[in-house]
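HOLO CASE FILE
Compound: flavin-adenine dinucleotide
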Amino acid sequence: MLIVGGGTIGLSAAYHAARRGLKVTLIDRFPVPPTGGPNDFGSSRGLERMFRILYSQQERVRLVETAYAMWHELEQQVGGAPILAEQDLLFFGNPDISTFEGNIHDIAASMDQLGIPYDSLEDPAAIAKRYPIFRPEALRTPDGVPYVGLVQNNGATINVQRAFQVVRGLADRTGRVSTAVGLVTSIACELSGDWVVTTDDGARYHASYLVLCPGVWLGGLLAQFGLAPASKAGAAWSIWQMSLAYFPRAAGSSVHWPIWYEFGNTKTDADRLFYGFPDVGFTPDTTGRLKISADYTYSTFTDPAAATRVPDPRLIGDIQAHLRELLQPGVLDIDHPTLEQACLYSMSPDGDMVLGRIPVAPEVEQFWPNAALFCMASGRGFKYTPLFGRVLVDLATTGKTAYQADLSDFSTTRAGIFQRLSG
Ligand SMILES: Cc1cc2nc3c(=O)[nH]c(=O)nc-3n(C[C@H](O)[C@H](O)[C@H](O)COP(=O)(O)OP(=O)(O)OC[C@H]3O[C@@H](n4cnc5c(N)ncnc54)[C@H](O)[C@@H]3O)c2cc1C
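Model generated. Tokens follow.
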């Protein structure tokens, strides 16, 4: 199997393919860093990712529950430090707004229907009582709608570096995965059905199966199939450059922080979203510091070469201004963020991921043989890593997967995702 893209999803696919006895070549344009973690250019960059079950779509809840069990299997196989740092996760905010992360009422309804336990915090006082980091008077929208909250007690912060270390280690242990560094410039399907991939240094790779996990660089690879990401005004694929920072706890503060995600409370735009992590201390540099980010950006584009990967001071300023309003004094040193970073989302036109076989034309249910694709992760793919690696291998090798029924939202043939390559 040839896998193009060695981010978290491609690496997971490599592991699953090798476990099934396939010989795998994992090709990435960037070398694996000495740490064995993600490279600094793709969407897997960084230290922490949120793991949550709180989804309004029941199919998605089933998928994340499967992924959760698979993360634990991976941990058990190697022992040592866990991948998931489990902790309470708070979704809170305006119960009436619908964002691309869902709507709080719908999420509660979905948990109720599936019989998944959660704690309900019915008003600002209840939220501030459980989490005294917040100012109760800030827990409402600018026009006065009081916040509500949902707590998932088994949320988790995914340790990104550890996840890579574990999956890479297990893949290496099979003895069947080799890695190659090169920019894939051409992909061809031979009459035999075999795939031939060529890189910019002239190297050619042959295999029976092909999996593509290209992150923000999807354009060049889709072009090989006569496809392009949808670019219709108002419904176009785009890259979002996101900014984040780590904030030290205020001196002497040992107050409890949940993993948290806030649904809109700025004066300028009700859809603005902020989220953060406790000080999970995955590295010495971040010990005692909390990662906090805005889930929106002022910087969108379609050419990955336009990415500066420089954090946007305006966004860091937004985060600071918001935290000053939201938090009790004395819990966080808001004035001294460190380790500011930028990382890229690959946003689909409808905000959902794309996972499936590769269609021969946009919105057509005919597919290239023995090939599968994951792209447009839209800022939410990491938690699914072990499951999506398996699904991609299922689809490339057999054309189907046992998880198909729950994956239809992510279809590669849904309307408005791909268009024909013009010119
Ligand atoms: C700031 C931020 C916060 C996020 N938060 C969360 C979260 O809390 N929870 C969650 O579940 N998810 C989250 N995500 C999303 C998650 O991190 C991504 O969905 C995931 O990392 C995508 O992995 P990937 O393997 O698809 O892509 P990438 O990691 O981008 O890997 C793609 C790889 O393909 C390679 N490549 C591309 N084209 C070629 C080519 N032509 N030739 C050779 N190599 C090529 C690239 O070099 C790259 O290494 C977040 C993302 C960001 C940026």
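CASE NOTES: The chain has a mean pLDDT of 95. Residues 58-78 form the longest helix (21 residues).
CLOSED: yes
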